[in-house]
């Protein structure tokens, strides 16, 4: 069975400083690294950095599964204004954004954060509570860079394993090794 890696992060295409070329390159490198490792990539069927990762992974031959907050493709595209391209399988939860986040995180073996704001923070807390292997692609800003500090401030017991690295391939390798050590692959 394929290892499922969820990619969460900044879905906003108009980041305050724009989607910089460096951020786009990191997202594309993460997508290629996931495909090279034969992973299934799950995203929230959203825009921004997760879309770049999923699209790149799809184009490199990985399975890209989108977990939608909508109840139908029409609602996905018109109400939520989310893309349907470069997605191999679009799953409709009908649970809205926060409900979708629970389904998305629970569907993943590994949860990777690239940048991220309040929605990604919600996904981080779910992943931490669920004891997932979590990877933070540092140097991208937002939740990915602040997770270590936040999890120390708001410490609570968890089986989660959290890794931080600024190299997408190394971060995935660290997370995959943690999964192997716990007999989950």
CATH architecture: 3-Layer(aba) Sandwich
| Gyration radius, rounded | 15 Å
* Category from helices, strands and their pairing: alpha/beta
User: Outline, from the CA principal axes?
Assistant: globular
Q: pLDDT below 50 for ≥5 consecutive residues: which ranges?
A: none
The CATH class designation is Alpha Beta
Q: State the strand order across the main sheet.
A: 4-3-2-1-5-6-7
What is the CATH topology assignment? Rossmann fold
How many structural domains does the protein architecture include?
1
Strand content: 15-25%
The helix fraction, in percent, is: 40-55%
How many β-strand stretches?
7
In round numbers, the mean pLDDT is 94
Instruction: Summarize the main sheet.
Output: 7 strands, parallel
Secondary-structure element series? EHEHEHEHEHEHEH
Number of helices: 7
**C-alpha end-to-end distance:** 8 Å
Describe this entry's structure for a reader.
This protein has helices at 21-36, 48-59, 73-78, 96-106, 118-129, 142-153, 168-181; strands at residues 4-9, 40-43, 64-68, 89-92, 110-114, 133-137, 161-165. By secondary structure, the chain is an alpha/beta fold. It has one domain: Rossmann fold (3-Layer(aba) Sandwich), CATH 3.40.50.450. It has a seven-stranded parallel sheet, sandwiched between helices.
């Amino acid at each position: 069975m394929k290892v499922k890696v969820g990619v969460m992060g900044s879905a906003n295409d108009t980041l305050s400083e724009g989607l910089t070329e460096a951020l786009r390159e990191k997202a594309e490198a993460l997508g290629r690294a996931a495909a090279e490792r034969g992973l299934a990539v799950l995203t929230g069927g959203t825009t921004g950095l997760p879309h770049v990762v999923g699209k790149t992974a799809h184009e490199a031959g990985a399975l890209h599964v989108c977990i939608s907050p909508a109840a139908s493709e029409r609602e996905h595209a018109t109400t939520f204004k989310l893309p349907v391209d470069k997605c191999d399988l679009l799953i409709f939860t009908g649970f809205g954004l926060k409900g979708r986040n629970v389904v998305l995180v629970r569907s993943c073996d590994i949860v990777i954060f690239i940048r991220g704001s309040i929605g990604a923070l919600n996904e981080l807390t779910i992943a931490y509570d669920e004891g997932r292997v979590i990877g933070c692609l540092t140097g991208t800003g937002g939740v990915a860079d602040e997770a270590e500090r936040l999890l120390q401030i708001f410490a609570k017991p968890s089986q989660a394993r959290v890794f931080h690295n600024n190299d997408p391939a190394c971060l995935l390798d660290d997370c995959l090794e943690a999964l192997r050590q716990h007999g989950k692959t």
